[in-house]
Amino acid sequence: MTTPVIARRWTNWGGNQQAHATDILTPGTVDEVAAQVKEASGSGRRIKVVGSGHSFTAIAVANDQRLFLHRLAGLVSIDGSLVTVQAGMPLHVLNALLAEHGLAMPNLGDIDQQTVAGAISTGTHGTGAEHATLASCVEAVKLVTGSGDVLAVGKDDPIFPAARLGLGALGILVEVTLRCVEAFTLLADERPMPLAEVLAGLDQWIPANDHVEFYWYPYTDRAQLKINNKVPAHDKPLSRFRGWMDDEFLSNTVFGAVCRLGKVAPGTVPTISAVAARALTARTYTERSDRVFCTPRRVHFTEMEYEVPRAALPEVISALPRIIEGLPFKVQFPVEVRFTGPDDVWLSHGYGRESAYVAVHQFTGVEYEPYFRAVEAVCQPLGGRPHWGKLHYRSADDLRPAYEKFDDFVAVRDRLDPARVFTNEYLDRVLG
Question: pTM for the whole thing?
């Protein structure tokens, strides 16, 4: 497990958020967390938990007391398919632990460095019409409220739909119970295709396959389609060399060098994107599920991701070339598109509807705001909901209409943290 660097000055993974905390807290027990919260509540101070720093928003920015959960990162219990872990456990540790016990998460995003608490609290998700956010896999949580009380919240509790995805606004998660599944193997089918063919085939592929996503390469008409399906046998392993070549050398080493070149010579970006899109080759292989879902991301970036009703996706995709061509800078990263089914988690982006997610990125240190704002301007009128951990420019006033249970969530916040021990500027903006 990676231990965070305990320093008052903090920068997130994307390099776009910084903070300087007055104090650093590193509790090793739930009782210590409760005592620290009680002290903060009594003195009018604030505490903000920081996980792995993989949020691009300021959701984890702490300018008073910053609390790390890396000492609360162990296994609590396994009861059949229900696995309870301490909330500071990173996802990659969870995945390895589950595999040792013949279990797996039913779905994952493409990064496994987040803590369990951070992943569920911001709406981390993968892709698949029968899946939703990771928060939808939560069966129970234990959290420390703003008064320092330890509260267990199960499925029968009326605040359960709020506590599963709480933005860090309701309390400090200390334990999470996850509904897991029997370990499984995925068959990954990845192939380059014209974007028009990908879009034309989505209505057929999404219901017919377990997991579907695609990447569109700006300045081209090319995309990469990725389809993953559960299979009974791990009989088509990717060679070690091919895995290293694709996922380490090309996707990280070469791509990082290309991004650095594009940063100093922006005029090269469209040509590089066209060459990269044409150089893509198909591959089909089997592997343990989490090793297919998650890939190493060593090239740092900033990101915005919007959820829109699935039927609205063509309108968003058709607007992207016009947006990108009109920017005063170049876009180096492909656009990622994923799909999920509805859930009943109050602040889940996919609450109550079939969703398409459109993620736009820029290399760290490269201008991004005009790009992200233009994409948001397309998505918001379509009923779009921004990913809580990724950059956006929304506030409580315009988020409230997008979430049927917004005021119910705020009422739970008022109950569990009336003194706003856990707030920061981001939460003040998005929750009021």
Answer: 0.94
